[in-house]
Fold this protein.
Amino acid sequence: MQQFFALLKKIIRTGIGRVRFLMAGIGLGVAMLLILIAAQVNTNFNELLHGSANASETIDYLVINKKITNETSGNESANAFSDSEIQELSKQPFIDSFSYITSNQFKVMAEIPAFGIQSMLFFESMPNDYVDVKTENWNWKEGQGELPIIVPNSFLDLYNFVFAIGQGSPQVSQETIMAAAAIKITIYNDITGESFTGKIAGFSDRITTILVPQSFMNWANKKYGGQATKKPSRVIVKTKDPSNPQLVQFLKEHKYSTNEEKLRFSRYRGIVDIITSAVSFFGLILLLFALLVFSMFIQLVVESCKYEIQLLITLGAAPRQLQRYLMKQFVPMYFIIGGACFLLVSALQWWASVQLAKQQMFVSPYPGVMTVVSTVLILLLVYIVNAWNVRKYINQH
Amino acid sequence: MEIALNQLVPIPLRDKILQQQSDVWNSNITFRPGRFIKIKAPSGTGKTTLIHYLYNIRYDYTGSVSFNGKPWPQYSSEELAELRQQKISVVFQDLRLFDQLTARENIELKRVMLPKPYHPAEKIQEMAEQLRVTHVLQQSARTLSYGERQRIAIIRALMQPFEWLMMDEPFSHLDDANASRAAELIAAECTARNAGFILTDLDDDQRFNYHDHYHL
């Protein structure tokens, strides 16, 4: 076959339009690079978001409530979640689990004699699984006079860096407060009341509220609360990925609000998504043009050697032999281009991983599965389109 | 391998043919394997047309040409290629060499078309010596005289295995001595293969021991 192909080389001149062929080759190269880079960037970004090396916490908690607008202000039931809304929320794929946050339905008065502070207060409670402060003191049984509470870190900061300075009061550490401060807490309704000694069990970053154990809340709401149970107006959800654009979209559509800070990655991710899809779209268009030029080139070669191909077939050359010969003229270039693009992207990936590691961001130094799959798919597509064209034009003679 | 003609009539020559008597046109005949067949006819009666029909590169006829019991239209292009590589060879009247190749390359092309060539490469030299064209083997086919081209085309046709060899006035540009040498080579190669041939010509000749004679 080698000798036969050597003779065919003198008969079927593939040199014609060689420049066009090379240009199409360059186009194919650029298209492949764009698509592979888009695939790789996507892989890297996902790795940065979800990879175990980058994430400090793989589960995130979001407190969700309705946005209070001018229309709904003062309308308590409109700002609470209805049963159907809760059901819809719990069905979303991006939410792992969720729980109501129960608020007090009685009045609370707190007093810290040591600091000379007295204030009306509120409580909320949620199941222990959702509480980020893990301490043995976090429980309450009926008859217990001491009530553990968790306050947000930001409260202490406000006290230390704003209130204390203004009032000339001493600044205190978390430990001091937890050990010393006894808060006199009185809960009451219009008829009767009861006092407890509040003890700060810890400081939370997760939720900006004052938490009491769920058991205390249930007992107190039953004893001092009104008859009708109120609908929850805040829920806490557990999610693996607070930057999931679907989650953000869902919140936006339903006019729910949450800690925006946690969603900020979503915006970056949206931008990266748009850029990578634009790049891959451009790459695909370019790929399409490259394929078109290849097809035209094959047609040109076959047309320009029409007489020769006819005579070869008359003399007994099998169409399959001629197809194989033509494919052998074109295909090596595609594979060289494909291989070169893949190597280039691999090198870029290695370089990027080194650069990112300096900033404590860790991505694999090797190309991702998506990149490998894309390379194989593109080459397969190019091969099939070429084989199809060669067959089509040879069989016309 | 039998070749059977069934009421074969070329469409362009239809009227002319139906008026005159012919052994071949519009009749049922079978060419049996291994026979040396001579078809004699004056110019313009369709010798080349017949060879093209038999080799299946022209299709403007009524009736049928069957190879091994199967009409030509039923063969796929790959099957045709296989037949032309292994069962049927041809010497065209217009020779059909590749001008961009040398004489040797033209012959070699047919030899190496099969993955396992029938003849070794040395056979080209041997046949070229026999037909006195050794000196032109390295020349481009374009520069050869018609007689030289004719002998190159004959050698090319003999490079492959075949059961039938079609020849369309193969000696038209050869002097008697050269024609006899070519006929001797062709007869030897056919005998070696147990192959038959179909040869068309204008006149009678004694170059082969023909088994069958037909008038077109």
